[in-house]
């Protein structure tokens, strides 16, 4: 069975996916920001807990070191699930806009740091994205959103970056296989710390119309346990660079198909997290 790291697994769909993967016999590494909740999920699934705050790239590097030590340098799957809609514009200690860092730059860096371990295993990367990426208008020259910031815009840009990342992995990180997926609009605590108008969807009466943790977590688990080239759910093949809308092949935005934008965001992301250019370009 596989060794699988799930980030954002202290609650919500990450916790569900961790449980389902453990039930299938996989070794599950549980990463989250809250020490108590992360430890609780890890204990429940018979896994190992790792604590990291993705607003700090030093924590991302420490997480990678800890995972490499725990796995002896062999990891089959990275399920980058952590993310969220944050509030007022904030610049992290690393100099990045916080929403972009948590949702995109942190998993971008983590993938690079674990790339050799992933190549030693099955080489699978699953990125939780969102249909919100259709509203993204990301500018490689202004990743920190100096102009026109709003929580919703920052989130849409970050989710577009997720989809662009999945499309760029094959060219930039040979030997790895990546997909992005929209889990549905999930009825969790997601968005509760945000000032975005979207918070009323998650906290108001429309909440009853949302997808459940269980359904979305099962989708994440199916993708994480899938095999590139084979069906991961009936009639839907696991395809490098694909964007899935829940359990079907999704229609990514026009910008997600822009190869120049894939390259530009890859290079800008590499610069933002301090990866030498030779690792951030072909």
UniProtKB/TrEMBL annotation:
InterPro entries for the chain: NAD(P)-bd_dom_sf, SDR_fam
Residue spans crossing the bilayer: none
Keywords, alphabetical: Oxidoreductase
SUPFAM superfamilies: NAD(P)-binding Rossmann-fold domains (SSF51735)
One family name in Pfam for this protein: adh_short
Protein name stated in the entry: SDR family oxidoreductase
Species whose genome carries this gene: Agrococcus versicolor
């Amino acid at each position: 069975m596989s060794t699988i790291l799930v980030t954002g697994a202290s609650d919500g769909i990450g916790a569900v996916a961790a449980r389902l993967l453990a039930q299938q016999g996989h070794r599950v590494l549980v990463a989250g920001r809250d020490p108590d909740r992360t430890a609780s999920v890890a204990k429940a699934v018979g896994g190992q807990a790792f604590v990291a705050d993705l607003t700090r790239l030093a924590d991302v590097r420490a997480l990678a070191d800890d995972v490499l030590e725990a796995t002896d340098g062999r990891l089959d799957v990275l399920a980058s699930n952590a993310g969220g809609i944050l509030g007022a514009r904030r610049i992290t200690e690393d100099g990045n806009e916080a929403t972009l860092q948590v949702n995109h730059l942190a998993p971008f860096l983590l993938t690079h740091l674990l790339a050799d371990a992933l190549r030693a295993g099955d080489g699978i990367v699953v990125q939780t994205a969102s249909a919100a990426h259709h509203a993204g208008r990301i500018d490689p020259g202004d990743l920190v959103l100096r102009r026109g910031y709003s929580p919703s815009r920052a989130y849409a840009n970050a989710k577009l970056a997720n989809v662009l990342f999945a499309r760029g992995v094959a060219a930039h990180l040979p030997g790895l296989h990546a997909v992005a997926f929209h889990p549905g609009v999930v009825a969790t605590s997601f968005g509760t710390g945000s000032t975005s108008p979207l918070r009323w969807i998650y906290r108001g009466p429309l909440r009853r119309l949302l997808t459940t943790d269980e359904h979305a977590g099962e989708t994440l688990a199916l993708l994480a346990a899938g095999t590139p080239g084979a069906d991961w759910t009936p009639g839907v093949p696991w395809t490098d660079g694909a964007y899935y809308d829940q359990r079907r092949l999704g229609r990514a935005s026009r910008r997600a198909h822009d190869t120049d934008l894939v390259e530009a965001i890859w290079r800008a992301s590499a610069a933002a997290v301090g990866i030498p250019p030779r690792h951030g370009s072909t």
